[in-house]
Amino acid sequence: MLKAIAIDDEHMALEVIKSHAAKVPFLELQALFSDAIQGFEYHKAQPVDLIFLDINMPDISGIDLAGMLQPETMVIFTTAYSEYAVKGFELNALDYLLKPFPLSRFLKACQKAEDWKQLQPTESNGHVFIKTSEGQIRVNFEELLFCEATGNYVTLYLDQEKIVSRMTFKEMEKLLPSYFVRTHRSFVANKNRMDKIEKHQVQLGEYTVPVSLSYAGLL
Fold first, then answer.
1. Per-residue pLDDT reduced to its tens digit, 95-117
2. Which helix (H) or strand (E) holds 105?
3. Three-state SS for 158?
4. Which residue ranges form the domains of the chain, and what is each CATH number?
5. Which of 96, 158, 194, 204 has the fewest CB atoms found within 10 Å of its own CB?
């Protein structure tokens, strides 16, 4: 079951989402919020898989709020303003619903979220398939030391090889189990494979990965 909440400052918009959600058998809409901060606080206390999120709201925009969410949280933007679409997808939003949206379009977005959830690895799986120019390559988590982001590409450093994939860093983080932690805005590392943790860097085998002050508390 896909667990979701909706955040929108317009009451009628929330009612539309509530009505549509009731017709989607694999979706459980747990709560509706007209206040963005209240919705964010709810999600911190009771994390959900998916947030239907308006963009143009008082106090804090949906764009800003989306940037505060954990990487694994899926976001579907719901807005009356098409000019926000590009920015929404830059934030790796799963979909973008332009108001007023019919049930068929809402269902398509929900199905995309359900499909994405099913593709996510669990820690018991122990692996994930990464798309490269040579096709899909299996990556075992225990062999993955760390990942480094450069623009729209991510380099995966394994025990015996390096793999380059065209994806954003946020997309890469969604594929990793919880023992991979961010050490820097461009690096995420396997906490189980760290040989030495210092103030400004960690050692993983022959590699040294930087640690920034904002992420030091995660180690």
1. 989 999 999 999 999 999 998 88
2. helix 103-119
3. strand
4. 2-119 (3.40.50.2300), 127-218 (2.40.50.1020)
5. 158
